[in-house]
Amino acid sequence: MGHFYGHGRNHLFVPGPTNIPEEVIRAMNRNNENHRSPVITALTKTLLDDIKKIFKTTSGIPFLIPTTGTGAWESALTNTCSPGDRIVSFLIGQFSFLWIEQQKQLNFNVDVVESEWGQGADLDILASKIASDKTHTIKALCIVHNETTTGVTNDLTKVRKILDEFNHPALVIVDAVSSIGALDFRMDEWGVDVVVTSSQKALSLPTGMGIVCAGPKAIEASKSAKSLRAFFNWNGYLKCYKSETYWPYTPSIHLLYGLRAALDLIFEEGYENVILRHNRLAKATRLAVEAWGLKNCCQKEECYSASVTAVVVPPNIDSGEIVIKAWKKYNLSLGVGLNKVAGKVFRIGHIGHLNELQLLGCLAGVEMTLKDVGYPVKLGSGVAAASAYLQNNTPFIPSRI
Ligand SMILES: Cc1ncc(COP(=O)(O)O)c(C=O)c1O
């Protein structure tokens, strides 16, 4: 096609799809195989066992579905809820908005709790709704753990606390699309009933695998839920799990090998180290944003996201111009502002297969682009703030100690 990709590598700093490690690319560089062979059966078994470690669950049942995060949402909803069910859903950004739209299309009775974009889910309103719901009309809560639009992370322990306080049986359904594999996530400890994620985020795989993990209460609910579902019916998977054939339809062989390699890398680095790395890169990014004199779209420190930072630009600057200039001139891919914050924020995704020096390259590119669009930034200011922090806080690579 004669498409010139630029010298060196593209600095991919969107909050998904993310950079794919060479090991994962190599693991996927292979022919197709019979998905009914003992080799794929054995591989699948290891994946189902190991993915549970990423969700921190022993009682949850994972489904690796050929879909995206949007399909994983639908799988979670249609297997657990019935048309007309009251669902409390928090609207805090574009992804919670899209999920709510899907909930409405699936004919649930969606009770939307809206917050200003940049704020977390309003859990005071949740508490009052739960307190007054004596007859348990609320069947489920839908909450996005990490809202990728605004870089806001919700504290799920508080959600569980509210439900427990009132002994309320509502299912907790969580979108962890931009958090699983990057942020600490404890499905069992936090009492989450269904968690969804997708392959192209922190797991650093190509798009195409939606991952749903269902706890015992959700599996029980799936037996009586009346929503229409066919492709996404968990029953198909559960039957295949029983007979150890695993696949109700053809999986992407390549993504299975890719997931194996991705999980191996996570465990080699140490899952807790992966989470610490994400925290470190996020903190360094925030220090750079502060040094540039710009604001974080996330308005509360306790909600700062470890996987994405949305940076608010001054009103005279269009953030879309920053994103396109950074790509055209510096081969740096940043995330655009979406919906309500279009033109107002750009996003730095520090999620997945990234390290400190890559981040500094990204921050240098952002600084130069800010100058390009007329923002009076001192070149090097953000990089200096971030590198001072990283120099003090970056540990040795675990395998090189
Ligand atoms: C938090 C969140 N949920 C859901 C989605 C939708 O996932 P997908 O694009 O894989 O359907 C995204 C995508 O960016 C996301 O960030």
UniProtKB/TrEMBL annotation:
<feature type="modified residue" description="N6-(pyridoxal phosphate)lysine">
    <location>
        <position position="201"/>
    </location>
</feature>
<keyword id="KW-0663">Pyridoxal phosphate</keyword>
<keyword id="KW-0032">Aminotransferase</keyword>
<dbReference type="InterPro" id="IPR020578">
    <property type="entry name" value="Aminotrans_V_PyrdxlP_BS"/>
</dbReference>
<dbReference type="GO" id="GO:0004760">
    <property type="term" value="F:L-serine-pyruvate transaminase activity"/>
</dbReference>
<dbReference type="InterPro" id="IPR015424">
    <property type="entry name" value="PyrdxlP-dep_Trfase"/>
</dbReference>
<dbReference type="Pfam" id="PF00266">
    <property type="entry name" value="Aminotran_5"/>
</dbReference>
<feature type="domain" description="Aminotransferase class V">
    <location>
        <begin position="12"/>
        <end position="318"/>
    </location>
</feature>
<dbReference type="InterPro" id="IPR015421">
    <property type="entry name" value="PyrdxlP-dep_Trfase_major"/>
</dbReference>
<dbReference type="GO" id="GO:0005777">
    <property type="term" value="C:peroxisome"/>
</dbReference>
<dbReference type="InterPro" id="IPR024169">
    <property type="entry name" value="SP_NH2Trfase/AEP_transaminase"/>
</dbReference>
<dbReference type="GO" id="GO:0019265">
    <property type="term" value="P:glycine biosynthetic process, by transamination of glyoxylate"/>
</dbReference>
<comment type="similarity">
    <text>Belongs to the class-V pyridoxal-phosphate-dependent aminotransferase family.</text>
</comment>
<keyword id="KW-0808">Transferase</keyword>
<protein>
    <recommendedName>
        <fullName>alanine--glyoxylate transaminase</fullName>
        <ecNumber>2.6.1.44</ecNumber>
    </recommendedName>
</protein>
<dbReference type="GO" id="GO:0008453">
    <property type="term" value="F:alanine-glyoxylate transaminase activity"/>
</dbReference>
<dbReference type="InterPro" id="IPR015422">
    <property type="entry name" value="PyrdxlP-dep_Trfase_small"/>
</dbReference>
<dbReference type="InterPro" id="IPR000192">
    <property type="entry name" value="Aminotrans_V_dom"/>
</dbReference>
<feature type="binding site">
    <location>
        <position position="347"/>
    </location>
    <ligand>
        <name>substrate</name>
    </ligand>
</feature>
